[in-house]
Every structure is written in C-alpha cells, then in structure tokens.
Design a protein that fits this description.
Layout (H helix, E strand, L loop, with lengths): L14 H47 L2 H6 L10 H4 L9 H9 L4 H4 L8 H4 L3 H12 L13 H13 L6 H9 L6 H14 L2 H100 L5 H47 L12
Length: about 375
C-alpha cells in the first residue's frame, strides 16, 4: 500500500507496489504447494488428540472405560474372573479400581478368602493333636536317684553321735558351789575364832590372814562371777542344741528317704508335665504369630492404592498436560487452514492492483 498510487497507470506502477503484488502471488503459490501438508498434519493431530481424549480421558473420568472393559466378550477368550481364579465371576476392573481407591489390600480386592482359606491353611490344631498323641506315647525312663546313700547316712549318724557333749552335771554343781572347794568366808570366821585361844604373838597373824581371806574372796567374786555365769549359760546352750541336733538329723534322714521315694515314683510324670507345659507355651506363641500373620495379610499387605494413584497421575499428565496442548495445537492449525482458502482468493484478487501490468486496459 505504501508504493501504490491510484493516479499512476498500471503499466507504470512503482517497484515497491510491483514487489508487493509478486509477494501476494508467491504466497498463493506456496499455499498451493504446502497446504496439503498442513491439512495432513491437522488431520493426524486431530485423530490422535481428539479421539484419544474422547475415548480415553473422558471415558476414564466418567468410568465408562471400565464399563466397556468389563463387558463380557469384548476381548475374545479373555475373562478377568477366570484369569484370577474367581469361581463366582463377580470380579471386574471397576470393582478393583474402586476398592483400590479406598486403600484396600489385594486380599480384599481379589476376594481371596473364597479361594484360599487361611483358617484351614494356617490351622495348627491338627499338628497339636498329632504332637499330643505322640507325646502321650513317650515313655521316660530315668536312672534311680539317690538322695543319700548308706555311707552318707552312717556319716551323718556318726557325726550326730560325735557331736553329743559330755555330761556336765558335776561341772554345773561345782560351778554352783563357787570357785573354791570351801568357802573362804567360813575359813576366815574359823581363823577369827582361833584368835581367842591363840597366843599373843599369833593373834595378829591370824587376824591378818582372816582379813586377807575376806579380801581374796571379794576379788574372786568380782573377777569370776560374770565368767562363771557365762560358762554355765554356754554349757546349757550346748546341751540344748545337742539335743536338737539328734532330732534334726533324724528328721533330715526321714525327709531324704521320703524325697527319694517321691522322685523315684513321680519324676517321669513331672518331666512329662513340665515338657508338655513348655510345648503348650510354644504353641501359644505360634498361634499368636499366626493370628497376627492372617490379620496383616488381610488388612495391611499389598495395598493397591499406590497403583491407582500412579494410574491417576499418568492420566492427569497425559490428558491435562499433553493431550490438551496437542488439541490446542491442531485446533489452531485447523482455523489457520480454514482461513487459508479465503486468503488465497483475496491475494489473487489484490495482486493485479499492485503488480506492474504489461498492457493497460483502456475503456
């Protein structure tokens, strides 16, 4: 338009105007050469983006895709229930998908309780009965148990007899009489009585001896009275404990004989009872473990929600990010193709008003 002037004759149009017309015809030529490629690209992208979006994305969100897959006979020779070994034939893709969305386990989703009975498979009562029957047939034979043999009994009896103390009767009587054979006080009195009948030269010695005897008696009483009392108590204690020692020795021998008789008669049964109690405790541990294993297998193991979340993420990436962009691309190219035809017509019609003409039309 900058080089076009209406007053200029068509045969004398400027170079700028002529170039504009040539570009318009060149655009028409390129459009005819490459428009089929543009149309083919629009067709392919429309076929991929539009149909996949409608067939997969929309049907996935409306759950119609699962209904289509669950249609019997859609895939010849394929039956999901038969593949999974379900005799009831009620397992479908939509059911599995819904239960996995609720974070169910594969055991619940595939309804494996109908095909595998965990209670029968992990039942240890049958083994318990076999163990009990085998244990009842068990015969325990032990060598005779000797708590005390004859030589040990004789040693105890000899020790008991040897431990008996001597007769302390005379000793205790003597201790009751005092330290000396006769009383020093009485001897001092007798010496004092002799003073009257003795001579003057002996009276002083007798009085001195009598006083000395009384002093000696007081010293002996002070020094030995506590020791004599302790000695008497110890002798009496030894006598009483010696009497108890014989009784305890006889009681010990009787208990040893009773224990030996009891062990010889009941030891086998005691071992069997304790062993069976230990086995029952072990079986209790196994039952607790089996109960935990069944509960874990049914409720916790192999939750399929992560699989469903992965499928939903794939659907979101493919549909919301890839196919939406692809649909926008072919939609834009489609409108370009639609406007290409009128642009060709307009370009052809305008070209002659810009190009330099070889012959001027004169009316």
């Amino acid at each position: 338009p900058l080089g076009h002037k209406e007053s200029t004759l068509p045969t004398k149009r400027s170079c700028l105007s002529n170039t504009g017309g040539n570009f318009l015809m060149a655009g028409v030529g390129f459009s005819f050469i490459f428009s089929w490629l543009l149309m083919l690209l629009v067709l392919l992208t429309f076929f991929l983006g539009g149909n996949i979006y409608m067939l997969v994305c929309e049907s996935w969100r409306s759950q119609q895709l699962f209904q289509l897959v669950d249609t019997p006979g859609l895939i010849p020779g394929f039956n999901l229930s038969e593949v999974l070994g379900d005799e009831s034939g009620t397992i479908t893709f939509s059911q599995i998908y819904r239960q996995c969305q609720q974070d169910a386990t594969l055991w619940q989703t595939l309804d494996l309780d109908q095909r595998v009975s965990l209670d029968e498979l992990l039942n240890i009562s049958q083994y318990t009965e076999e163990m009990s029957a085998a244990f009842q047939k068990l015969n325990i034979t032990l060598t005779p148990i000797s708590v005390l043999n004859d030589s040990q009994r004789e040693l105890l009896l000899h020790a008991c007899r040897d431990a008996q103390p001597p007769n302390f009767t005379l000793t205790l009587q003597q201790l009751d009489q005092g330290v000396t054979v006769s009383s020093l006080q009485e001897l001092a009195v007798e010496l004092e009585q002799l003073v009257d009948n003795a001579g003057a030269d002996v009276q002083g010695d007798l009085k001195a001896d009598a006083a000395e005897l009384r002093e000696l008696d007081r010293e002996l009483d002070t020094s030995f009275s506590g020791l004599l009392k302790t000695l008497k108590e110890n002798i009496q204690l030894v006598q009483s404990q010696a009497a108890q020692l014989e009784t305890q020795t006889n009681s010990t021998l009787d208990k040893a004989s009773t224990a030996q008789t009891f062990l010889g008669r009941e030891m086998g049964n005691i071992i069997k009872n304790e062993t069976w109690a230990f086995l029952e405790e072990l079986l209790g541990f196994f039952e607790t473990y089996i109960t935990w294993a069944k509960s874990t297998l049914r409720r916790d193991v192999a939750r399929c929600k992560p699989v469903v979340q992965s499928l939903d993420n794939v659907e979101a990436i493919a549909c919301d990010h890839i196919l939406d962009s692809l649909n926008t691309f072919w939609f834009s190219l489609g409108w370009c193709t639609v406007f290409l035809l009128p642009s060709i017509i307009v370009a052809v019609r305008l070209a002659k008003f810009y190009r330099r003409m070889d012959i001027d039309d004169d009316y």
